[in-house]
Amino acid sequence: MFAEPSIRRLPPFRCTTFALIALALMGQTSQAAGQLELIVVDTATGAPIPCRIHLTGPKKNVRNIPKTPFWHDHNAISGKVLLRLPNGNYEFLIERGLEYLWRKGHFTIENLADDSQRVELRRFVDMSAEGWYSGDLDVRRPAADVELLMLADDLHVAQVVSWTNDKSARGNKPPEEPLVCFDGNRCYHLLAGAIAKSGTEVLLFNLTDPLDPPAAGEYPPLAKFLLQARESADVWIDADRPYWWDLPVLIAAGQVDSIQVAGGNIRREETIKHESDGRPRDRLRYPDPWGNARWGQHIYYQLLEAGLRVPPTAGSGSGEAPNPIGYNRVYVRLDGEFSGEKWWEGLRAGRVFVTNGPLLKPSVNGQLPGHVFRGDEGSTIELEIGLTFSTRDPISYLEIVKNGQVEHSIPFAQYAKGGRLPDLKFDASGWFLVRAVTDLPNTYRFAMTGPYYVEIGGKPRISRAAVQFFIDWVYQRAAAIEIADPQQKREVLDWHRRARDFWRELLSRANAD
What we know:
single chain; alpha+beta; five-stranded antiparallel sheet; 29 strands; 18% helix
């Protein structure tokens, strides 16, 4: 028997508000300041816990807390912090990743204020206890801060981008141990690299030494460099935007291991409104504010429609994008004890979901994402979708995406009453996934399982329309290449011809519209 889908019901959000009343001494000037010791504890243990704090001052301006890691509008603290502040009214938001309820509040500093305040954070789900471990594959913060940052946002795996082809770390001595593990089940890697070429950026993970990256621009070809990199190093290649111009060429060359469907373009307060240096979207079909994010998902779905099985990933871009570390994250399901090697094996197998809000625990006929359901020619496969939710963000609706189209869209209130998703039937090969979406007005907050696959008659689904989508893309990209040197241009165009041939051959094997 398969377990029925269930919902973890959360208590209503409550704002923690406290006022600090201090004695105003005679003769003290208006420039006097006070201090507050803030202690953030885990409700279950009562012990101080690392967390992230967004602190704003009397004029709603962001306050940076000295001697703690700061980025954009937030600090990471170890659990205790002494706030020395000018007089005035202050507001704060305290968070710890996606598995704790956030806390809001305000306080007042008056002349010579000196007090201590305790704030509790309550964990409402422990994903790692159920084998789900979170990762951020695009961290651009100082290496010295990474451990505290990971603890403050309850992150288990991080790739720290420390070299690029614009500003390389080649002149620096690489760390003796680029992989650092701590706290029992957390690891980060200090030698991730970012290579940006015309219209494309890829991230390289799990290296033991920095590579000698090519210069920006059209030449030398990125695909050639990545192919050579694989010959000399065990490297994982991640495309951090689905809409980069060279994606079809890199896919054809076998140089993409994963694709970020939730990258630094999706931000805590906004989603960017352009595809700078990438293939632009149809703005009528994909309007703002969610258009950029939904366009990236559409491209990812076209890859799945073309019969290619590439796992989805996520990265915050924290340090360049205004996000906190782990804002966009990918959860990977492991069996048994955590290890970095097992985490990457699970990612490659597609046992994942990506999110910047809702937390999903999917099970379809008892199987995890990435599973291939197989049947004989002429058979029908029936699938029961089980899904357990834990969320602090109000979900608007759930979608079952089948073969690139929304098969079912279920208002979350309706799902909450019935407690289950519709079953699926396949009488031909295909794929599907589940997506949960909120209705926040300014940004795209969602969760999406990795795809499940169905093979009937031993062949994956290959859609003619999806393959043609990438053939047209290759021609469009090749037509835009401008290189003055004839020999260099021929070399670059040769990779586009190879890509054209790859996609044409795939088109010849298409078995669906």
